[in-house]
Amino acid sequence: MTAEQIYAEMKDTFADKTGFAMADTADLAVRLYAAAAELETLYAYCDWAMAQSFPQTATGEYLDLHAALRGLTRTGGAQASGTLRFYVETARSQSVTVPAGTVCVTTGLVRYETAADTVITAGSLYADAPARAVEIGAAGNAAAGAISMMALPPVGVALCANPLPFTGGADEEDDDALRVRVLSSYARLPNGANSAFYEERARSHAGIGGVSVLPRWEGVGTVGVVIAGEAGLPDAALVTEVQDDLNAVREIAVNVTVMAPEVVPVDLSLTLWPADNTDFASAKAAAETALGGYFTGALLGKPIYLTRLASLLFTTGAVKNLRFLTPAEDVAITASQLPRLGTLTITEGI
Questions:
Q1: What architecture does CATH give domain 188-259?
Q2: 190 to 32, 182, 185, 193, 259: CA distances (angstroms)
Q3: What's the mean pLDDT when you consider all of the chain?
């Protein structure tokens, strides 16, 4: 209820009990309105507390608490990764070192840093350095050629670029996605022996992007657990960590095998018409960034729907129309497979 509604009810009750209609300018009326304003705040707090009491409506840290009751945690995001190429103007007689931590930026001021020292050897014009986005999130995904400036150029280095897209950047799990997992945990109660138990246990590890459970993977008494990292393939340390954990809690006489997924490259070729007041180069870069950021570990076991990709591209606001040339239809993916963006070809529509 609003303060005005509460105040009106107070006045009506006062008039009913006393037979006297109180004017809004009366001293008591001012006091009643002040009390009504406080009651409005109390009503709002009660509504908020009620909403946070149930996972269907809880948000933020309170939804995290509901998730914790189910043994779930909000998954963190991932940094985009790729390769930065550093150039010298002319070949030199001595090598030039690009130190780890060298920061390069896009025109949109998204920052990337090198992960290791890199040497442009004598006689060479360039060298490639592994790099990652400074910030976690999908904003770090960048099309080839999008990174073109250095925050503080190393001595002797003239230019930088990214010959290939930066991919794998993912945002932290939002409330809607976490809520789905929490509610799903009630619908599929783990009992220490079913697929839901192994899936939820594996997902509880940091860095997990997707989990598929394969009952009777190698016959009776075996379970296969396929895991993907947030950015794609899991590293060996994550596979070992999950394997050790599941070995400790598995059922008696059950053999659990944790493994990385089979990678399925998805080559995409499409014709694109840029939106009005957008040039093709900008529309192409936006499309490359959007598609590069879509192929993360969360796609484990999920088919690639062309309609979903089209929706993703239209959402950029840089695309007016498009047509997929390949694949000709949706790409089927099994539970143990992880689709990954292969060759991406984008041509301008005429």
A1: 2-Layer Sandwich (3.30)
A2: 54, 12, 8, 7, 21
A3: 91
